[in-house]
Amino acid sequence: MSSTDSALPTPKVLKTLGPGLITGAADDDPSGIATYSQAGAQFGLNMLWTVVLTYPLMVAIQSISARIGRVTGHGLSTNLARVFPNWAVMGLVVLLFIGNAINIGADLAAMGAAARLVTGWNEHALTIGFAIVSLGLQVFVPYHRYVKLLKWLTMALFAYVAVVFTVKIDWAQVALHTIAPQLPKSGWIVVVVAVFGTTISPYLFFWQSSEEVEDEEAKGEAPLIEDPADAPEELERIRWDTLVGMGVSNLIAFFIILTTAVTLHAHGVTDIQTSEQAAEALRPVAGELAFFLFALGVVGTGLLAVPVLAGSVGYALGELRGWKCGLEHKPTEAKAFYIVIAAAIVVGLLVDYSGFDPIKALFWSAVINGVISVPIMAAMMIVASRKTQMGVFVATPGQKVFGWLATAVMAAAVIGMFLTF
Question: In 3D, which of 300, 264, 262 has the Cα closest to residue 282?
């Protein structure tokens, strides 16, 4: 049996968890928290099944993203340009920038609002402060140090695990409704589409693929297609990194839905539009500790997600344009790359202060992400199956089945989203 087929990860593999873990954790950003909170508040335990279903789909598509980066030594943009015309990929990247900038704005606003609830300080000052901190860390801290900080920030997600243990839960009912949900005749499709859209997001594809390349270069290693001797160990690492990372992502989403279901939904609070509202609504029904942990989680996940959202755009555009890219480079060495990252955060802040309804902004961000995710996923599947690009390291049969299934599910979600307009 090869190491790639081992049933359990080795201690060495667990120690090297990185791009997959950070990618999965960044998926539970404040905007995602708001979506999961609304799902739990509106439909109670009957939405838990959604994040169980998305887990294998997310693992498949993210492991393919990582595989493409590690095998070819290039990020997703470069590989997409080998499938689509350059102008088409540029169009997708521009839409990615718009969607990510809106998401960044919403996340920064949520972080500022959550921090205000805890500290009482000025919300706008906190929002700007978080933006400066996020940008400063990306620009001035080398990747090999910065990635360690991002790993520590993933611990903020476990605030939502802690929240669950501050309230009383009937676990038999949780299991029953997860396996056999009781859905109403109408209204639930929109929420399912929202959960799928926030869980399987295009910026995650670009980030994990590029971070595999960044890790490879930082270690002085060659792409697997050029140095196949490292393949067994590296593919095992990617496999477990993605399994654990997406497992953390979906587990936390499960706990957020569960928490709001047994607290807010159970007390008749069924309309939650922001993560701040979710935290504030928890206070009277679940107590100060639950409120504090929920608010703390919003800030921690935002500090993790904003750099990933901005960084993924920098990688996507930089790779396509042939710029020097990478967080290991100093600003003077990769000016254009860092300018794009800064621009994404600044535009996000401008969205916050434009007076535009943040809920509508997030809606259109979801529309954009949904529209571009399907062609990107399809192109990823094509790249991962091409021996001319992947050599002997084409996607496994299992990855192909679940990867195309994930693509089909996202296509159905997008169609469902447009039908609800």
Answer: 264
pLDDT at residue 245 greater than cutoff 70:
yes
Q: For residue 222, what is the DSSP state?
A: P
CA 113 to chain centre: 21
Q: What is the CA radius of gyration of the chain?
A: 20
Q: What are the phi and psi torsion angles at 243 (to 5°)?
A: -60, -45
Hey, what amino acid is at 105?
G
What CATH number matches the domain at 3-419, 3.90.980.10, 3.30.2290.10, 1.20.1740.10, 3.90.650.10? 1.20.1740.10
Q: How far apart are CA 258 and CA 267, in angstroms?
A: 14
**What pLDDT, in 10s, does the model give residues 6-35?**
455 555 555 667 889 999 999 998 888 888
Ramachandran angles phi, psi of 332, nearest 5°: -70, -20
Q: How confident is the model at residue 157 (pLDDT cuts 50, 70, 90)?
A: confident
Query: In this structure, which amino acid lies at residue 212?
Result: E
- Length of the chain as a residue count: 421
Residue with token string 């689509």 = 84
The answer for residues whose C-beta is within 8 angstroms of residue 333's C-beta and 6 or more apart is: 324
Which pLDDT belongs to residue 56? 95
Compute the distance between CA of residue 345 and CA of residue 125 in angstroms, rounded to an integer. 15
Residue 201 region, left (φ>0) first, then alpha (ψ -120 to 50), else beta? Answer: beta
Residue 2 pLDDT grade (very low, low, confident, very high; cuts 50, 70, 90)? very low
Helix pair angle (30-43, 275-286), 10° resolution = 50
Mean per-residue pLDDT of the chain: 89
Which residues are CB-contacts of 312 (< 8 A; sequence separation ≥ 6)? 96, 100, 203, 204, 206, 207, 210
- pTM value is 0.90
Closest CA to 373 of 342, 409, 400: 409
CA distance 301 to 120: 20
Percentage of the residues of the chain whose pLDDT score is greater than 90: 59
Pairwise CA distance, residues 262 & 260, whole Å: 6
Tell me: pLDDT of 5 over 50.
no
Sequence ranges of the domains in the chain: 3-419
What residues contact 12, with CB distance under 8 A and at least 6 apart? none
